[in-house]
Amino acid sequence: MTTKYLLSGFGGQGILFAGKFLSYMALIEGRHLTWLPSYGPEMRGGTAACAVIVSDEPIGSPIVSAPDVLLAMNLPSLDKYERTVKQGGTVYIDSSLVSRKLERPDVAAFYVPATQLASDNGIPRLANVIMLGKILNAADKGLLEKAMEQVVSAKHGDMLAVNLKALGIGRDL
Q1: Angle at 85 between CA 119 and CA 170, to 5 degrees
Q2: How far apart are CA 49 and CA 38, in angstroms?
Q3: Dihedral, CA of residue 120, residue 123, residue 124 and residue 126, to nearest 10
Q4: What is the fold of 2-171?
Q5: DSSP letter at 86?
Q6: Would 147 disulfide with which of 25, 63, 107, 159, CB 3.0-4.6 Å?
Q7: CA 107/CA 120 separation, integer angstroms
Q8: Nearest Cα to Cα of residue 11 among 52, 37, 40, 35
Q9: What is the reported pTM?
Q10: What confidence tens digit (pLDDT) does each residue in 72-125 have?
Q11: Three-state DSSP string of 49-68
Q12: How far apart, in Å, are the Cα atoms of 95 and each of 18, 101, 114, 161?
């Protein structure tokens, strides 16, 4: 089984962190993966995207031109990538920042007010992790915790509990 993810938003929204998290999950499971970040020179405030492919088989190319799963944290990302999602795919939209609905009836859409939820819970910089919790709500909780332990650096160890809280908020939606 192969799943192609395209994560997108403004620089500073944690798009690359989200991609690393998906990658660590795949590594822990012993699966094949690619992680391909892309961001503008502005970084914070510019555009950022991250393509992640997770597969049971070797992966020939890291390019994700037709994602199974799209995460759109802002309107420019939704506008740019909505048409690329594979028929039958899934789109997760931060509805706190994106007011429009999908134009495609052939994909599933989840509207998650992640930025508002993050602010309401005193974790304003973790809307990306709330979205991950929603995307991965069927994943084993232990696997999610192990992956988060790997992706949160020792330098920021105090952030582990907060990130796990954000994952839980997303999973509970």
Answers
A1: 25
A2: 5
A3: -120
A4: Pyruvate-ferredoxin Oxidoreductase; domain 3 (3.40.920)
A5: P
A6: 25
A7: 29
A8: 40
A9: 0.94
A10: 999 999 999 999 999 999 999 999 999 999 999 999 999 999 999 999 999 999
A11: EEEEEEECCCCCCCCCCCCC
A12: 18, 9, 7, 25
DSSP 97-137: T--SPPS-TTSEEEEE-HHHHHHHTT-TT-HHHHHHHHHTT
Q: Which of 109, 127, 125 is nearest to 117 (CA)?
A: 127
Question: For the CA atoms of the chain, what is the radius of gyration?
Answer: 15
Q: CB of 26 within 8 A of CB of 144?
A: no
> For 159-163, what is the mean pLDDT?
95
Give tens-digit pLDDT for 44-87.
Answer: 566 799 999 999 999 999 999 999 999 999 999 999 999 999 99
Closest CA to 113 of 129, 100, 131, 101: 131
Res 3: pLDDT: 98
